[in-house]
Amino acid sequence: MNNRNILILASAIALSTVIFSVSSSAEESGVVNIKINTEKNRKNISPYIYGINSELMYNDVSVGSIRAGGNRYTAYNWENNFSNAGNDWKHISDTYFQQNASANEKNMYGFPAINLSRQCAVKNNAYSIMTLQLAGYVAADDDGEVLESENAPSARWDKVELVKGSDFSLEPDTTDGIVYMDEFVNYLVNTLGDSSSETGIKAYSLDNEPALWNGTHPRVHPEQTTCAEIVEKSVTMAKAVKKIDGGAEIFGPALYGFNAYTTFQGAPDWNDIQLENEEYRWFIDYYLDEMKKAEDECGTRLLDVLDVHFYTEAKGPCGERSCSHYNDKGCIEARMNSTRTLWDDTYREDSWIADSGTDLIPILPNLRKSIDKFYPGTKIAITEYNFGGDFNVCGAVAEADALGIFAENEVYCANLFAGNAPYQLAAINLYTNYDEQGNGFGDTLVSCESDNSETVGYASIDSDDQDVIKLVVMNKSFDRAHTVNISFENNNNYSYVHSYGIVPEFSQVFDFTDNNEKITVGQDVITYKMDPQTVTMLVIAKNKEAFVKNATKTEQSIADESSVNAKSNSIRKYIKIAAVSASVISLAAVSIILFIKKRFYQNKG
User: Is 209 a catalytic residue?
Assistant: First the structure.
């Protein structure tokens, strides 16, 4: 038996143990009541909230959007594909973006954007977001470390001009020391098609975290960015993009976090700006107002999506943000609750942000308030976020909660940022491809109310089809099992439940229906006995026929069926075999499983 089959069998046996036993450490804490009303509080769900950044696009995850962004992109040169790592890694200029390029693609202009389009096609035509460079200079070579004495302007850098002012070329002059950003957009439109085409870039981001340029890229932009500078560059670049591709959406200003939201990281001109307009509660108000004024002047919307980043600052008892103390109850619960800073005005996390006494949290309602006042119609994106727990089930639970919060608060686009995040990716798959056939959460959110903040749910339907409800429910407790009673305020005629979920032992979605004895379907209520730190997709249908009808395979899943389902079928086969003997599994068998897994990963390494 090869290593892969050993791991599949070990996973199946361990999973059956999880399904058929309740952890002895779990503490029952009573009943949780969840009420669903399919006619109430309906909201359209943007598929782009199930997004990732390009670092994760080669993983087995079904997504709605992919963003090519991050610190590396600020000094990226589209003419030669060189980039600079900045303070992230010794100010190295290299060919980082050519890692996945074939020999024939090494010299292809704008390779990261071409590759982004290609990977979006692989991911069921996911929405593509490409970063444009606004800081002023980009890497001219791949000769390694750039010294402080070689700060721009120097031979190590090419100058960025946002607008060329003359005819574009599809073969840019790579010897003139200048890189034109509108020529880049024109090249992509001519190469891939415009934003309305299947392969065209759908959106452009106005660089990345400009409030930190002097910290992340001091060789390029050693001075602190001013508020006026980022507005001027945003307006100029947005006008240029819209002139070339009027349907492309503009994302900006990609603010890194709370201090950028408020004072643009203490920008030199912020205090004077706020003194001149006391209506501005934070920098975001000023930016929106200035972009709206620019639109009024030119007659074209220049900011389609307000783009911010959000990394939780919440701390547990250890005093660290986003720690890896997965056995510490306080640390786990701090992570589980940290998502509430996005929406809940009754919650205050343990962090420097909450300690500041600010009235600008929760984040999403305050962003919406600013948009409604200063630039109505602007959408919201969180193109970088991560609540941690990359290698623990708590990460899956927090991620699942965040995705539900994005839907509830009508976020347009959200993109997980991580180097490797298997549990979070499993949570995304729970929403987008829970059955490995392309079926996911519905496109319309409906009312779902819980009487316990530890066990929350998000319910949806597909358009106006109320025969099937898709409920994502999570138990955020560290050690308390909950009995969840699910009722329906406007219709109780649901008799069939199919369940999928993520358990602590494995960073993947499993089909639990054949073995799940924890779900009981009654006349007026569905009861689910839920273990701690778990997240489940319950597909609740009028009957099994309605479930089957709803679970129609997508074209992509049919095309990929032979390769994608091979793994799924093998796993389910072994799960069923293991289930028969689950009652006789002993502690010795569990020890053997752990030993097999250890040997597997040693061999793999």
Answer: yes
Dihedral sign, CA of 311, 316, 318, 323?
negative
Roughly how many angstroms between the first and final C-alpha of the chain, as a whole number?
Answer: 18
* Contact between 338 and 387 (Cβ < 8 Å): yes
Give the dihedral sign, CA 418/423/425/431. negative
* 3-state SS class at 85: coil
For residue 282, give the 3-state DSSP assignment.
coil
In terms of Cα–Cα distance, which of 329, 302, 286, 342 is closest to 206? 302
Per annotation, catalytic residue among 55, 79, 209, 249 = 209
b (16+ CB within 10 A) / e for 22-39: eeeebeebeebebbbbbe
> H-helix or E-strand containing 145?
strand 144-145
361-399 pLDDT, tens digit each: 999 999 999 999 999 999 999 999 999 999 999 999 999
The structure tokens listed for 132 are: 């444009």
Structure tokens at 274: 């706020």
Task: Report yes or no on whether pTM surpasses 0.85.
Answer: yes
Cis ω before 153 (30° cut-off from 0)? yes
Rounded to whole angstroms, what are the CA distances from 150 to 84, 90, 155, 157, 532? 13, 13, 8, 9, 55
CA–CA dist 361, 538 (Å, integer): 32
Neighbour count for residue 605 (Cβ, 10 Å): 5
Beta bridge partners, 37, equal 447
Distance CA 494, CA 523 (A): 8
